[in-house]
Amino acid sequence: MHVEHLLFLQIILGVRAIAGPVVAAACCIPRDVVIDGIIDSKATKEEDREHTYKILTSTEGVMWGVSIISNEEIDEINILQASLKAMTLATESLLQKYEEKISATDCIVLVDGNKIPGRMPAAIQSTQCVIKGDSKIFSIAAASIIA
Fold this sequence. Notes:
The chain has 147 residues and is an alpha/beta fold. The protein has four helices and five strands. Helices cover 33% and strands 22% of the residues. Helix 2 packs across helix 3 (79-97).
């Protein structure tokens, strides 16, 4: 089966709930879309990240979704479960937002990190972890900027 889209997930975490909410982004950038300045968000200055964020979220063809889990929910379910939930919700957000352009059956999800969310949409072909993915894969780096 030919896979048309890869979804890339990046999750940005506060170390504790005190540090803020959990934010996850899912991003799919078609091969024909070229955007300069996308590198690991931790390696860029804030003003460069903000500029690249605006380009990413306004460029035709770039598909993205975001999820935010509040401090209160983190306290209830713990930071790991909140992170995994945020990844799932970001993926669902992207798929709903662009349902006319993308189907879960056409997707392979690459997750930055070493944990795969257990409740990803069932139709997704596969989900794989990429450790330090934001420094290795363009669209994971893009998701890190969006998150």
